[in-house]
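2.7 Reproducibility. Because tokenized structures are sensitive to small changes in the input, we list the exact sequence used for TIR domain-containing protein, including any N-terminal residues retained from the expression construct. No trimming or masking was applied before prediction.
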Amino acid sequence: MSTNRRNEVKEASIRIIRPQTYPLFESRLDSLKLLLTKQGFHRDWRGLAELASLDVAAMGSGKISPTRYTLIEWGKKGGLIKDLWLHLETIDRFDVIDDTLEAIYSDYDRVDGKVPPLPPLDDQVIDELASVDANVLTIDDKNNLAKGMGLQRYDALVLSSDEDSDFVQEMVEKLEGEYGLKLVLKDRDLLGGLHLEPETIARLITERCNRVIVVLSPEFLNSNTNLYFTNFAQSLSIEQRRRILIPCLTKPCQKPALISFCHSLDYYRAKGYWNYWEKLRDSIDAEPRQPIRSGVIIAELPSPSSPTTRTPSSPSAASTAIVGSFPPNALESPSAMSPATSALSSSGPVNFRFSKLFKFPGTKSKSRERLSSE
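Resulting structure tokens (single pass, no recycling of outputs):
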């Protein structure tokens, strides 16, 4: 806990941290964590940069570790060791504090009267760090940055096999051309020369895309890479408790076990019975709809005060009035009632009372009396 930490070190600048200590932070914070804190912060260098009011995208740029870049820039802006400890606690990384505590003490003792504070980076080094942006993954990112805009956010990532290219082309024409959604496709949008393509796609899924569309077909399922990303997206969906994966079947096939209970949009079953592309659009960009009003109203009415009224089997003493759509002669002729209604009326005294607010055509007062409890 913070009560066991040296008070004089808390007030020191983050710039006392020596280059030899940076790897301790880098090895623990550079790797991206999928699970967020309860407050919604990332549990890696991104959460630290966000809490330090730094540009997260800029901190991920350059040739050095994003954690090191964050600490250097934070120190230049006046960050203190106590702020570093506080923010590490906020992102639930007490382990980083414990693993680096002695190294920070050592750095502080060396700086105190022996080593001057670390100088800020000069402009040449900053330009060199900014020359390579590790977060520029797609052509849209490159174009946006050239216009002074941020990195591109996508409505959905599309995963498919080469054999389904015609289906994917039609999907792109419908969703992007007609509905204005923004999709990202590996072959069309990823920049050349990216290292570790699987890691790039995983970053798109976790950081940049709202949904993941998987075009399931026998050919798609023959690829271990496709299965990996499908299971990855579904696992992320379960962990974050939100709908991420949208399976689309072009032809009948066996879905992977992890998504076997996930509802799919089957293109081969639509056959003009419903608008397949509109349904896919709504699945990607779901908007709140007005609640559907039922045509049948069920209301509670007070139980009659007559002493001869039979006690209902339910614990409630109230009677149920059902108002709905009945044939005009339903109340006059038991034969016009549905089998379920006839069974109710013949099973003994039933405590049904129809509200006076609703009047059925062709209904006489005798009919109401006959339906009332005896």
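Residues 297-371 form one domain.
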